[in-house]
Fold these 2 entries.
Entry 1:
Amino acid sequence: MKIKAALAREKGKVTIEELELGAPRAGEVLVKMVASGICHTDFTTLNLEVPTTLPMVLGHEGVGVVEQVGEGVHSLAVGDHVIMTFPSCGHCESCLRGHPYACDDSTALFFSGFYADGEKRITDAEGTKVGSLFGQGSFADHCIIAERNAVKVDPEVELKSLCSLACGAQTGAGAVLNKMAPKPGDSLVVFGCGAVGISAIMAGKLAGCSTVIGVDIVPSRLELALECGATNVINGKEVADISEEVKRLTGGKGASFALEASGVPALVKQMLQSVKKEGLAVLVSFVSGPVEIDTTMLFVGPCISFAGTVEGASNPPIFIPQLVQFFKEGKFPVDKLATYYPFEDIHKAMEDARSGKAIKPILLF
Ligand SMILES: NC(=O)c1ccc[n+]([C@@H]2O[C@H](COP(=O)([O-])OP(=O)(O)OC[C@H]3O[C@@H](n4cnc5c(N)ncnc54)[C@H](O)[C@@H]3O)[C@@H](O)[C@H]2O)c1
Ligand SMILES: [Zn+2]
Ligand SMILES: [Zn+2]
């Protein structure tokens, strides 16, 4: 079928083109898109900072309605509302353990543009094969996705509000709820109040953390952090030593948990210095350069743990419906992060994401 998609043919640039999308194969569904979020990782891919090849249809935070099902699809039917999430193979040890975020094939399935069978589903007018980011390519009015990577959601919830649950919000909330698992009364500091960071702040509040600190350099983002559950915020431009300020706000000891979601190399060290003894620091951002740290002083002495996670260490068929339920109960207001654009205005949406004007730009089809 003919689709309209935002295609990346060269580094840094997308253009809307008409392309040909194949039919869903066994274990796949065709989804008519309702909306797609734009995530920082779309830019990371567009700038070729990950192992990828163009041409590729970007986008990996799609929501829509199932229009056709391939052979052997049992859990989804035509008309189902779905959130499309990150791909995984389904049969490696991590997948079998229910840890698809650590799938053996995740790098290739996320960034190569190929589906799990080693083929692509889209061709351009000249017959050139076109990749689909995250086995999805949601910057298009239709896309094909593996059944196991599409999560069915309650049709009563407005789909366009849920895009970021596919990646950004799942990453931030999951880093807190799945990886850190704080107890009521614990403290959390979040570096970078973008879509990932603010979702982590919402999750910190949900989990009952008594102190939740947001760090950023953009005043409007700090204001939103406070609105979404932060008890304190720190403007990195106004404070000489962020970790000292975190210690001051946490009774002199440091936070129980810290999350790095800014991608700024210097903040990785600040994060490590902000956690209290035996605390846990979690890195989710793609840090933009090397980081120099004194491992003995930072890890051995204070007995702290340092972890990385992909997609919030989440098992999407279980975690995404939980987040949808929290959203319905008003406890996880991800719609507060959204700015909506018609799909045709994708260039403006991407520009607003780059400039920081929009936290979670969402394209509407
Ligand atoms: N691990 C994963 O699975 C995963 C998934 C999604 C996104 N990511 C990564 O997570 C990171 C965050 O994603 P996002 O979509 O929230 O990005 P974003 O660009 O919206 O957020 C980054 C935030 O950091 C702030 N910031 C920049 N410089 C700063 C500084 N010097 N001090 C304090 N704050 C500063 C920005 O103002 C912004 O609010 C990105 O690196 C993204 O690629 C990782
Ligand atoms: Zn796997
Ligand atoms: Zn993403």
Entry 2:
Amino acid sequence: MCLDVGECLVDETRVWSTWADVLGVPRFTLMATLGGCVARGEDHERVFDRLGRSDWRALESEKEAAFGGFRSGDLYPDALPTLARLRQGGYRLAVIANQPAARHGQLAALGVNADVMAMSGRLGVAKPDPAFFARALELMASPDPADVAYVGDRVDNDVRPAAAAGMRAVRIRRGPWGLLQDDTDGVAALVVGSLDELAARMPEAFTP
Ligand SMILES: [Mg+2]
């Protein structure tokens, strides 16, 4: 099985709080405006335009320095226990997600151990591009896609494209995308509210 990072393993509150601080806007304003973008079906980068900060890319390194990489407190409390439980259950684990390349080492340092780990920033291809899911399957040594569950919070970036790639799409409903997006096509093989719930219900993702 393959897991997403943002709002699946990692709570991104500190990422967005750091952005608010670097931009000099109230955290509440940034968070709520981001939620509005998600609800409108807009790309999350639109939040910067709405805040009048289309120059945000120039501040990326300042944000990253202030953020300082993932810390253990950024992991959802059920992340590491679930990975351990799934591994004990015989599942091979992959963590392949839309993240900067540096997040790979940061996750490993926090104890996120997977058989395969890859970030879009290194791969040069990102979700929802079908090429991302094709590359993910290659990295997992080309299993039958139907034997792979892709677990993610976003219907647009995770659930739909993973299902289109022939994988079992598992939707985790946490974070703003998980709560605001609708799986109108009903393509998710399993919907859970947490990784704890996933660990308990994983076999259901593979029932026809
Ligand atoms: Mg995510």
